Fold:
Amino acid sequence: MELGLKGKVALVPASSKGIGRGVAKVLAAEGCKVVVSSRDQDSISKARDTVVKETGNKDVYSVKADLAVKADVDRLVDQATSKFGTIDILAYNTGPPKPGTFADLTDVDWEQGVKLLLMSAVWLTKQVVPQMVQKKWGRLIYITSSALRQPVPNLVLSNTVRLSLAGLSKSLSLEYGSKGITSNGIMQGHILTDRQRQVAKDISSRSGKSVDEAMKQMLQDVPAGRYGLPEEVGYLVAFLASEKASYINGTMLSIDGGLMRSVF
Ligand SMILES: NC(=O)c1ccc[n+]([C@@H]2O[C@H](COP(=O)([O-])OP(=O)(O)OC[C@H]3O[C@@H](n4cnc5c(N)ncnc54)[C@H](OP(=O)(O)O)[C@@H]3O)[C@@H](O)[C@H]2O)c1
Structure:
């Protein structure tokens, strides 16, 4: 199936590794011009080079930006727009929040969590939507977490703040659906990245199990019996970004190997 993404400009923040880099790779392979970003110049430049090498697409541009800092987010969009002229696709991804239970987290942690998991999406969306309205075409895709449907132990910030992205995405689908823009979200389960290894280490330190055992334990509830791959999230993003998905609007899609048991 031809997705028709050649030449579209995609912004994929938080993409020096893990899910973001997997998404950037798939979009670059589909012929998009891709902007990648993270807080560390060296890592994001290396990620850019890796994506170019893996896909043969040289239209990949890296920007250093901390998504929890508004000035960085504004600069990210400015630089992306200067480089490629416009942004057609926002494949929103962000860094993992601080882990912890309710008792562990301070007010400062909550404020930082809200900036990282919610305000970054608001800031980015505010910047890219006017361009999309002008072109009468745009794709807003919010990569969130299965935590929207089922809280994850020891990740209270994620369980709480990320839910707001479902409200944001749905509201945007209503407000901009008639303007050629779709807004959808993705709720991924266990995807094999450094973040999953960090969660496994955390379980290991609290339970006395080895990290390998903790990694296996996390798969117990996954009917597919394996971790998902960052590129598999990328394939879903690519489809949602395509013209073929223009009638998919205002929905949150799971990609979790069957982890969630609820029927809807
Ligand atoms: N992996 C999973 O199974 C899973 C499941 C559900 C939800 N999630 C969520 O999905 C997102 C991506 O997860 P992942 O597994 O790909 O994580 P990862 O492998 O740890 O990668 C995180 C990426 O985000 C960047 N980043 C971190 N903080 C940032 C910030 N403040 N500003 C800009 N970039 C930042 C990192 O680069 P720098 O450190 O260089 O900034 C890195 O490129 C996270 O929000 C995670 O919580 C993951």
